[in-house]
Specification:
480 residues; alpha+beta; five-stranded antiparallel beta sheet; five-stranded mixed beta sheet; 8 helices; 12 strands
Length: 480
């Protein structure tokens, strides 16, 4: 059977993780670059603006001392601005004509012209403003100052500082993006090895189980340096081990159940065929009656086995409701002991029952609890060798009762103490006797449904002791 996975419509987690991290780094880098460009532009232009204001104050002072502008021309001539700096200065007469103008470069592409007469336009307002020069892709800081004699001084300047700093930031961002890309890819590879590798191992294992239907109980978990993934792998391995053990126990039990059913069915068929082959006489009629009685008995045994299996399943799922009523536990146990006393005598077993002399009243499902004690006593008698002992004890406490059954039977290995409570599990040492592995699981389910607890102590070849603790009045939430 193939897995219903559409790999063509999905991307791998590695690709998604790498792309996501790269997208985050790229978006953050671009955002940082845009903010840095804006801050650099504002800072550089503010610096140029302050520089132009300072030059305007200096040049205005020179014109105040030398209105002819000769000193100003000499000052401009001796100043040496870097070749990358855009610089311009001019003096406008009150009528708008240009009294003096100079620029670097000489053919500065100022919008409207720097040395063009402007008599047709109103005089410019005092203050500083920015003028964009498309030919140089730069902003020129223009400062206009009104002189005391009515003339207008205009100074414009733009250094290369903004472009230079933007170029540095661009290089840094590109270097960061390159480093981030390499870092993200490397980190993704490491994460893939740490996370995706155990996931892929588990996926491959589950795919193999689904396709082949086979799972080994001792599968090595997919180890990971990440604790959570390592824990998940370990839990998956434990779950797989338990499921495999349960499946094997179920297969073994089903084989035993099939054998238990096959034997009485073959016996029924053989007896029926033998009876039908007899001639019709009074004796044959009597034999037929006996045969029918035997058939009914064998059917009852088979029905009981099936009912036990259904009861365990129903009680585990909470379908069966308990009929909780007050009853005398001591009298119920005496009935069970009397029922098995004949079997104990057949095996020459010593069967003793130690209980209070007065009734022990509790609340519970009498029929279900009788089934519990009958199963425990049946196991004790069945797995105790001839001339052995089976001792039963009932102790009443203020809030609970304790029932204990001890036998000198074959015992149970300590490694199987937790397994015997599982449905359909049968210990290898107990397979010499008939059974289906449902007795103890049914005992545990019924006792816990009453709010009680069951405990087992046993050693191989040294007998078994089972203790059942029941509250006098179980919680009603157990039966909701």
């Amino acid at each position: 059977m193939s897995l219903p996975v559409r790999t063509d419509a999905r991307i791998s987690f590695f690709t998604f993780l790498t792309a996501s991290y790269l997208a985050v780094f790229v978006v953050c880098s671009l955002l940082l670059y845009a903010i840095s460009r804006h801050l650099i532009a504002e800072s550089a232009r503010a610096f140029d603006r302050d520089d132009v204001r300072y030059d305007s104050l200096e040049y205005a002072e020179i014109l105040h001392n030398n209105p002819s502008g000769q000193w100003l021309a000499e000052e401009i001539a001796i100043e040496h601005n870097p070749a990358s700096t855009l610089f311009a200065i001019r003096i406008l007469n009150p009528d708008g004509t240009i009294a003096y103008a100079a620029s670097q470069p000489a053919d500065l592409a100022f919008p409207g012209g720097w040395q063009v007469r402007r008599t047709d336009r109103p005089p410019p307002a005092a203050g500083c403003r920015e003028v964009y020069i498309p030919a140089y892709h730069r902003y020129l800081q223009l400062c206009t100052t009104w002189l005391a004699d009515g003339r207008i001084l205009q100074v414009a300047k733009s250094t290369k500082r903004e472009h230079r700093q933007k170029r540095i930031v661009r290089s840094i961002v590109l270097s960061f993006l390159t480093f981030a890309s390499v870092f993200v890819i490397g980190t993704s590879v490491v994460l893939m090895l740490l996370t995706l590798r155990p996931i892929r191992n588990l996926t491959a294992l589950m795919s193999s189980i689904i396709q082949t239907g086979k799972a080994e109980p001792a599968v090595s978990p997919a180890r990971s340096l990440i604790r959570e993934f390592d824990t998940l792998s370990g839990c998956f391995n434990q779950l797989l081990t338990k499921n495999t053990a349960l499946i094997r126990a179920m297969e073994d039990t089903l084989d035993n159940v099939a054998h238990d059913f096959r034997t009485p069915l073959m016996r029924l068929r053989s007896v029926a065929e033998s009876t039908l082959a007899l001639p019709e006489t009074q004796q044959s009629r009597e034999m037929l009656t006996g045969t029918l009685a035997g058939i009914i008995e064998e059917c009852d045994i088979a029905r009981l086995q099936l009912q036990n299996l259904l009861d365990v399943r129903s009680m585990e799922s909470g379908v069966v409701k308990l009929d909780v009523r007050p009853f005398d536990l001591r009298a119920t146990l005496l009935e069970v002991v009397d029922l098995y006393s004949v079997l104990a005598e057949d095996k020459a077993l010593t069967l003793s029952f130690d209980a209070p002399d007065v009734p022990v009243l509790i609340e519970g499902d009498q029929a279900r609890l009788s089934q519990v004690f009958a199963n425990l006593l049946d196991n004790a008698v069945k797995y105790t060798k001839r001339q052995g002992r089976v001792d039963l004890c009932l102790v009443a406490h203020p809030d609970h009762v304790l029932f204990r059954i001890t036998d000198s039977g074959i015992g149970i290995p300590e490694s199987e103490h937790a397994l015997v409570w599982r449905r359909l599990y049968r210990s290898p040492v107990a397979r010499s006797e008939k059974g289906n592995g449902l007795g103890l699981s049914l005992v545990k389910v019924i006792v816990e449904a009453h709010g009680g607890a069951v405990e087992l102590r046993s050693s191989l070849g040294k007998g078994t002791t089972v203790s059942v603790t029941l509250p006098l009045t179980p919680s009603r939430t157990q039966f909701a």
